[in-house]
Amino acid sequence: MKKNIAVLMGGRSLEREVSIKSGQRVSNALKKLGHNIIKLDVDEFIVSNLTSRKIDLAYIALHGKDGEDGTIQEILELLNIPYTGPGVYSNILSFDKITSKQIFINHNIPTPPFYFLNESSFRELGTSKLLPVIIKKLELPLVVKPSAQGSALGVKIINKQEELPDAIISALGYSKKVIIEKFIFGVELAVSIIGKGSPQILPIVEIVPKKDFFDFESRYSIGETDYFIPARLSPTISEKIKKTAVRVHNALKCSKLSRVDIILDKKEKTPYVLELNTSPGMTDTSLLPMAAKEAGISFEELVDKIIK
Question: Is there a catalytic annotation at residue 277?
Fold first, then answer.
């Protein structure tokens, strides 16, 4: 049935340009599916733009702040507009990596050991003096990342103790809390999950960046990363990875859609969960469409599944 679908894109996050690419591609697919499309940039006029039109559904093609932290979902709930992806609660839980990692621990889901510092403790309480303690407990190398940011923005790998303070200050430019996490040597994997009830688990994507890690450029520049779909894993390990992803999906109450990022430890073969994304990218180099294609699902079919 033909619907009036608002594609929400752009926004104020540092992932704005990626969101616009996702939104444009989704809009083209929705047009091919026969729907009426209203493309909306999420700015100070978004409430007026949503209320001045007849909208049957909002497709959330936002990434990062406002799109994956529960903000736009809350606005749509207030306006009684159905939307794609998980609800307010799931977005709040998954967007803050400290909160989601605590939930993983409570559910006995492996996640890299970590500590966190917030801006005020680092600047006002002298917790910079604890950095040698953190290094001793976690051991080098370490990963420093903002607690609430996507697309690997602000992430740095630390190999020397003297690199840690600058990495923390840099990460604080993206978020008021910073995670200092043990670096896990292993294989980067992504598992996308679609649907309610008995969700469909798409083929696992193995990510092999040409740099030290899967950073922003590696994610969105063609030729910077090699992908293997399905991942080069044994059937036993593949099943273990998928079960872990579903546990994460359920722990964070993510009905409808998610992408779980995992690193498989090379020695122990333990799947360590890094994070869950509630609004996975839909660009030409995004992981969710890649996995869907391997499963025999065209981009238009994928978008159709998500809106349904």
Answer: yes
